[in-house]
Design brief:
Largest sheet of chain B: 6 strands, mixed
CATH topology of the largest domain in chain B: Multidrug efflux transporter AcrB transmembrane fold
Number of strands of chain B: 15
Strand order of the largest sheet of chain A: 10-11-2-12
Oligomer: heterodimer
Distance between the termini of chain B: 29 Å
Strand content of chain A: 15-25%
Number of helices of chain A: 10
Structural class of chain A: alpha+beta
CATH class of the largest domain in chain A: Mainly Alpha
Strand order of the largest sheet of chain B: 7-6-12-11-5-8
Helix content of chain A: 55-70%
Radius of gyration of chain A: 31 Å
Radius of gyration of chain B: 32 Å
Number of strands of chain A: 13
CATH class of the largest domain in chain B: Mainly Alpha
Distance between the termini of chain A: 39 Å
Number of domains of chain A: 3
Structural class of chain B: alpha+beta
């Protein structure tokens, strides 16, 4: 039999550490507040790439022509007014430079191309059209951008963007990706003073930036507008649903286990959620719907972990009812330890894969999951069991004092002893 | 259940999942881009496509036949014609020609119309089949496909203020219907493919347009005002146009709505298309054109109210509407001058209905001759002008498709890496039993995506994240079982007993932990319509799949190894033999 680890010895310490972190988080939240994401704050969130134009493509034929650019090729799809459709695909492997590519594009009926970048540029750097309305305009040229590197890249800095949009009120600017990236997340808060904000802001933003960097150098990857009403509803919903989840878990655990186990489980889950809040507050992670999803995922994961351990403790108690609860608990948690480590390990592996390969909000999400898996595992070993342990001790004490009041019960086992004497 | 029965259950589940996955694979990997573009068009565009292809093919064929061209037809170019012709030969029980010359192909058909119908039918059926496939395939969310969405608020308090009383539930419903109707008529003016438009909550409307991502367009849709008016129809020119189109099916230019033959439409008149509602409530072109007066006879803002009722004598459904005093006078003058002529109700350049004027009418108008549904729709259209609902965006989102493509790439990469890491770890740690996990996990993924397709759910970035995490979490059930089996082996039990005990001891733990996970996932799915929902749904699906694969599939694999490979030991750990 493997050695039983005395988990209860650490309880005082772990509870103290947890309480300290949670308190620090709550105080931090009170003092610094949350870095509220666009979901919770009325305003515009845009993802803008500062990239120079590679070529201007225009279309003068019958019907419509659309263009989609992927990592490996560019495809034109023409639709005649009658509805018939033809596609022309140009693989970058076959047309390795912009010069070759633009010459190839010109073979598509009705398409005219004006090369804007050095002809020797690698075709793989080609990006789609601004806002990628795949349809090529007939009245003016559609600008295709490219991911310029080295000297061709635009000298953009957060400070310069801030200067360009200084009249917009509260604006936050963040570079997306590493130092070589020229993609920026620009957020403009809606102060509520301009009723046409939602309709005009993106045009205003691109035109102001265009004045500084040239209209052709701006590619809007993404723009989200969220109104005040939307964010209010979301916040309300999120709070109610989190509370609802806690309540249901409480009911389910009371039904499957005992109420004290249920309270311990919910307590450990609330503990995880609050530690996550502390993490979000101190790292200034943007608080948005994705983060709520992360918290709720951790709630689910942690409760899962806790229940597995409870199951084991209950089993130990059943097989060994005479032993003190504490001993059964330590044995149960110890026996689960291998499983606890392996499971949290596999979840961590998945979360790390997400963290490495995704960008933006998904990266934050993965980071929260990583933190949450660690705290979830910790809380089910130390917090959830500590609560049940404390409860059992108190309940036991009460029982003891109850037993003391009834001498007959105490006297009974003593009787044979007296005979032996 | 015997092993064989259990195996059949798994095969059945797998087969059903693959059947649901089939359209997705077919659409995303085996459908050429050009075909995708056609199939994404409206039914109207598909009809036009089939028509033009049939005409092109047949005119080529006729030219060859007239020139007595003896050469064999190009098998690829004329594949459809040859197919149609072969079928016609079969139906007529005649021998097919040895060589498919133009003449031989045409000889199969009784007349030109039959040839046209047969060829057009094949083209149309083919595209509609692709469209059906697309409808069944897993849809990509906006974050993966690029596109835009908007949540729009209808200003009901303003309407209530205008009417001077609180809105009843029925009035609110009607106001929302009007708002959707007016958005509806503007939305497809931009030729967007497959837009979604639906009411959300009590007073909001959600629009989603995949592909194009121009926030300006959302504004155009929102700011455009439904322009309703009554026009007098020029019946002579309309019938002339109809007979001209019978000869030249593609005679009307779709963009400018003009015909090449200038004698058909006299000056001061224009061509407009007639629309009806399709089964989704979206506008659908009927295929009919009308020639109407270029200037409206009466503007829609004179309408004060509109409703439907049933004629007390004939029982026919009818639409009635009231005009203000000025409108009544104009309408009286118009109807007096055009008795027995056709009047069209036009909303944003689309003819929504047409009716014959029976007598001069003043301010209270009654229109009959429709089905009950048409009458209701017409009343709704008329009310959009009488009681416009102010709309403002609550949230809008526009995502460039290149961003979406990057997201798809990184998502697939994350899923693959997570999958390989987890499986690799399980094989290393649990040796032979790791194979169970690998098989169970592959099955898990297939079933998850199968369920996603079966319910027509949308695959978004958060739902990919949900899948990645499910991979990690669903391994948990396997770990619980394996650890239990290991314990039983340590106590000296044999293979069969250890496996049996391992599964039965882990059973309730697994059910408990999965159920609580499901509870939190289902709760999450209630938050809005945004990213969390996608994540929660995939987490919930993953939880259910994991329950099945860990308890059912993995157990069968163990039993199979015991009975078929006559295994005596469990390869589950480096230490426990």
């Amino acid at each position: 039999m493997t050695r039983v680890i005395q988990f209860d010895k650490a309880f005082k310490f772990t509870v103290a550490v947890s309480v300290a972190i949670i308190l620090a988080g709550l105080i931090g939240a009170g003092v610094m507040g949350f870095h509220m994401g666009v979901d919770f704050q009325a305003g515009l969130n845009s993802d803008i790439d500062f990239v120079p134009p590679s070529m201007n493509v225009s279309f003068a034929g019958e019907g419509t022509m659309s263009l989609s650019v992927s990592k490996a090729d560019a495809t034109f799809i023409s639709r005649a007014p009658s509805g018939s459709s033809t596609s022309y695909t140009f693989a970058f492997a076959k047309y390795p430079t912009f010069q070759a590519l633009s010459d190839a594009f010109k073979t598509v009926p009705g398409v005219a191309v004006e090369l804007k970048a050095p002809g020797s540029t690698d075709s793989k750097l080609l990006l789609g059209a601004s806002q990628t309305d795949a349809q090529i305009k007939t009245d003016s040229a559609t600008v295709l951008h490219y991911d310029a590197v080295g000297s061709a890249a635009l000298p953009v800095t957060v400070e310069a963007i801030r200067a360009a949009v200084k009249d917009f009120g509260s604006v936050s600017i963040q570079r997306v990706g590493d130092d070589t990236s020229h993609e920026y997340m620009i957020r403009v808060q809606d102060s509520g003073n301009d009723p046409a904000f939602s309709k005009t802001i993106i045009t205003k933003l691109t035109s102001e930036l265009g004045k500084v960097y040239g209209a052709d150098n701006i590619l809007v990857n993404k723009s989200d507008f969220v109104g005040a009403r939307f964010s209010e509803n979301l916040a309300k919903q999120a709070i109610w649903l989190t509370l609802g989840t806690f309540l249901l878990i409480l009911l389910y655990c009371s039904f499957r286990f005992k109420p004290n186990y249920a309270i311990g489980a919910v307590l450990s889950v609330v503990h995880d959620a609050l530690i996550m809040v502390a993490f979000i507050v101190f790292t200034r992670t943007e608080f948005n719907t994705t983060i709520i999803a992360a918290i709720l995922t951790i709630v689910g994961y942690s409760i899962n972990d806790t229940i597995v351990i409870y199951d084991r403790i209950r089993e130990k108690v059943k097989f060994n009812p005479g032993a003190p609860f504490r001993e059964n608990m330590n044995r149960g948690v110890t026996e689960c330890l291998a499983r606890t480590f392996i499971t949290s390990g596999t979840v961590l592996l998945s979360a790390i894969a997400l963290f490495i390969f995704c960008t933006g909000s998904m990266k934050d999400f993965a980071l929260c999951i990583i933190i949450g898996v660690v705290t979830g595992t910790y809380s089910s070993c130390f917090i959830a069991s500590a609560f049940v342990d404390a409860w059992e001790i108190i309940a036991h004490k009460n029982k003891k004092s109850l037993k003391g009041a009834s001498p007959i019960v105490v006297a009974a086992p003593k009787a044979p002893k007296a005979v032996k004497d | 259940m015997s092993k064989f029965q259990r195996f059949l259950v798994i095969l059945a589940v797998l087969a059903v999942s693959l059947a649901f996955l089939w359209p997705t694979a077919g659409w995303y990997w085996f459908t050429p881009k050009a075909d995708q573009a056609i199939a994404l068009g409206s039914r109207e565009q598909i009809r036009e496509y089939a028509r033009s292809m049939a005409i092109t093919d047949l005119s080529g064929l006729k030219a060859k036949a007239a020139a007595n061209d003896p050469t064999r037809l190009d098998a690829q170019k004329y594949a459809t014609v040859i197919q149609a012709s072969a079928k016609a030969y079969d139906v007529a029980k005649r021998d097919k020609p040895a060589t498919w010359t133009a003449k031989a192909a045409l000889a199969a058909f009784a007349n030109e119309k039959a040839a046209y119908d047969a060829v057009e039918n094949i083209y149309r059926t083919r595209v509609l089949a692709i469209k059906a496939r697309q409808k069944k395939a897993v849809k990509l969310g906006l974050d993966l496909s690029g596109g835009m969405s908007a949540t729009i608020q209808a200003d009901l308090p303003a309407l209530s203020k205008k009417l001077g009383h609180n809105l009843s539930a029925a009035e609110k419903t009607d106001a929302m219907k009007r708002a959707i109707e007016s958005l509806n008529s503007r939305i497809d003016k931009f030729g967007l493919s497959e837009p979604t438009i639906r009411q959300q909550g009590d007073d909001q409307i959600y629009i989603e347009m995949p592909g194009a991502a121009d926030p300006e367009k959302i504004n155009e849709i929102l700011m455009g005002r439904g322009n309703l008016a009554f026009y007098i129809v020029n019946s002579d020119a309309t019938s002339k146009l109809t007979s001209y189109l019978a000869q030249n099916p593609l005679g009307v230019d779709d963009k400018t709505l003009t015909v090449a033959d200038s004698t058909i439409v006299p000056a001061g008149f224009v061509i407009r298309k007639q629309y009806t509602k399709d089964s989704y409530g979206l506008d659908e072109f009927t295929g009919k054109y009308m020639v109407i007066n270029a200037t409206p006879g009466l503007d829609g803002n004179h309408i004060q109210n509109a409703s439907t009722s049933t004629d007390s004598i004939t029982g026919q459904p009818e639409t009635t509407f009231q005009l203000d005093k000025e409108g009544g006078n104009i309408f009286y003058a118009m109807t007096s001058a055009h008795v027995k002529e056709l009047m069209a109700v036009v909303l944003d350049d689309k003819i929504k209905a047409a009716a014959t004027i029976s007598e001069p009418i003043r301010d209270s108008v009654r229109m009959t001759g429709f089905s009950a549904e048409e009458a209701t729709n017409l009343a709704l259209v008329l009310r959009t002008a009488a009681l416009p609902v102010e709309l403002s965006p609550v949230s809008t989102q526009a995502i460039g498709s290149s961003l979406g493509e990057d997201a798809v790439h990184s998502g697939i990469l994350a899923v693959t890496i997570a999958f390989l890491l987890v499986i690799g770890f399980m094989l290393l740690y649990y040796k032979g039993a790791g194979i169970n996990t690998a098989i169970a996990e592959v099955l898990n993924l297939v079933i998850m995506v199968g369920i996603l397709s079966a319910f027509g759910l949308t695959l978004s970035l958060p739902s990919i994240a949900g899948f990645v995490l499910t991979i990690g979490v669903s391994v948990d059930a396997n770990v619980l079982i394996f650890e239990r089996i290991k314990e039983e082996l340590r106590e000296g039990k044999g293979r069969v007993a250890a496996i049996q005990a391992g599964f039965s001891k882990a059973f309730w733990t697994i059910v408990d932990s999965h159920l609580t996970n499901l509870i939190s996932a289902l709760f999450m799915a209630q938050i809005g319509s945004g990213p969390i929902q996608g994540f929660a749904i995939s987490l919930a699906i993953g939880t259910i799949c994991s329950l099945f694969t860990s308890l059912f599939v993995s157990h069968l694999i163990f039993d199979f190894e015991t009975d078929v490979f006559r295994m005596k030991h469990v390869s589950i750990s480096w230490r426990v033999k």
